[in-house]
Specification:
The protein is of the alpha+beta class. It is built from 11 helices and 13 strands.
């Protein structure tokens, strides 16, 4: 069989996403579809992180998802090269405003891929943006532009972005598409702890279920809402900053004897943990080694422990596009120092409660 230069092919960006969606969204099944939802919601969260907007709406109607915010609205209009900015945002690879730290800092988006992955892998995609007294609307079908319009609107104060999409069964072909509303609820509930004061308003048209998540105290509320039988009253908490990097750690021991950890970086859940988690675990091990004589098991020290580490870093490094694991080496040292300091201060300030942990 001949193998020549004529056998070398190049996929367009659209075709690459639709034919190799697992590379961009993690998998070609319902987990990949959920990643689409994550990408869009975290775009809105990034706006809130920068101080714009305070509400994110998420709606589910059959397998159609709508995400809307009241932030600045994605930019639109012609760029210097003559291309339309909003079309570029949703269809051109490595395009966005998050490469410039003057525009976005400590946010989740970093590669200019996520929203395009959603738009180009959908059977139907609608995006609208309101800002400066105008509204731009983009519609794609099967990754191909159907229309783009800009029109004047009466309300100069109306601003924000609204995206509606239907994931393509042809693209996500490993199983029948079914978007689980409970999964959307869990996502937004966790995000509410990372973005205090921001409201996540969810509505399921399939069941008429409506729910709102809003946290006032961040990850401390996460502990309070998650732990049913704490063995000590006061949770451990610390927040430190070094060289522009923030690290926030909260923990509390419970009576269920299981270990539960959650890792977040720039508002994203890192399901596989990473360097910040390693730092926290190392600090726990080192601290309790000094408290016990003889053999010591780190797993025993973390028995019944519920803990959260939430970091913000200007230049995050993740293991993959779905960002399930954070790799920044500086997070390990910072998380370790913060956790060690937190444990030491708690042991001296809350002696009786610390004794219950030791017991």
């Amino acid at each position: 069989m001949n193998y020549t230069a004529q056998d070398i092919e190049t996929l367009s960006f659209k075709d690459a996403i639709r034919e190799r969606v697992a590379m961009y969204m993690g998998s070609a099944d319902n987990q990949g579809v959920l990643q689409c939802v994550r990408e869009l919601i975290t775009n809105s969260i990034d706006e809130m992180t920068m101080g714009f907007g305070d509400t994110i709406w998420v709606e589910l109607d059959n397998n159609q998802v709508t995400i809307q915010d009241n932030a600045r609205g994605v930019p639109f209009g012609l760029r210097e090269d003559g291309t339309e900015a909003m079309e570029a945002i949703y269809t051109m690879p490595h395009t966005g405003g998050k490469f410039d730290e003057k525009v976005y800092q400590n946010v989740a988006g970093m590669n200019g891929i996520g929203a395009k992955g959603v738009a180009l892998s959908s059977s139907y995609f609608f995006a609208s943006s309101c800002r400066d007294g105008k509204q731009a609307t983009l519609i794609l079908k099967d990754g191909v532009k159907e229309s783009f319009e800009i029109e004047e609107i009466d309300d100069m104060n109306l601003h924000g972005t609204r995206v509606t999409f239907i994931p393509s069964q042809e693209v996500y072909n490993l199983e029948p598409i079914h978007i689980d509303f409970n999964a959307l609820k869990e996502m937004c509930k966790n995000w509410s702890y990372l973005t205090p004061k921001v409201s996540f308003r969810l509505f399921n048209y399939n069941t008429n279920e409506e729910i709102v998540y809003k946290s006032e105290n961040g990850i401390l509320d996460f502990l309070k809402d998650s732990i049913k039988k704490p063995i000590h009253k006061t949770p451990l908490y610390i927040k430190v900053e070094e060289n522009g990097i923030e690290c926030e750690v909260a923990m509390q021991w419970a009576a269920d004897r299981k270990e539960h950890w959650y890792v977040f970086t720039n508002g994203l859940a890192n399901a596989e943990g990473g360097t910040s988690l390693t730092g926290v675990k190392t600090a726990i091990t080192n601290f309790f080694k000094k408290k016990f004589k003889g053999e010591f098991s780190p797993e025993v020290a973390r028995s019944g422990l519920f803990y959260v580490v939430n970091c913000k870093v200007p230049n995050p490094s993740f293991a993959n596009q779905t960002k399930t694991k954070v790799n920044n080496p500086e997070l390990r040292g910072l998380a370790q120092r913060a956790t060690g300091q937190m444990l030491d201060e708690f042991s001296r300030r809350y002696v009786n409660e610390f004794d219950s942990i030791i017991d």
